[in-house]
Amino acid sequence: MMEFLCYSRCSTCQKAKKWLDENGISYQERPIKEQNPTVEELKLWHQKSGLSLKKFFNTSGMLYKEMQLKDKLPNMSEEEQYALLATDGMLVKRPILVGDDFVLTGFKEKEWSEKLQ
Description:
This protein is α+β, with helices and mostly antiparallel strands and 117 residues long. The protein has helices at residues 11-22, 39-49, 62-66, 69-72, 78-85, 109-116, and strands at residues 2-6, 27-31, 96-98, 103-105.
């Protein structure tokens, strides 16, 4: 069963959830703010995704901007970035869909269709 990490007030997450439901795709929903990812999960998902670690940051979020992470991330080690992401689910790009052999961050209907249909 896939894990779907989302934030209920995020419109992109709502669209992604509606898309999953409309396409009959089963998933386990997990609120990212209340159950933020652990360092171990983030490492695993990062490896599975093939994406750069920066793609796991919610770069348009208020917290990201308040912490001035745009300037700080390039100077942080991967370990420091994982640790930072694990401190607050609001720093993490959402939604995240975790399957057995893939991880999708953000919702792009075309990308999700190709992976899931």
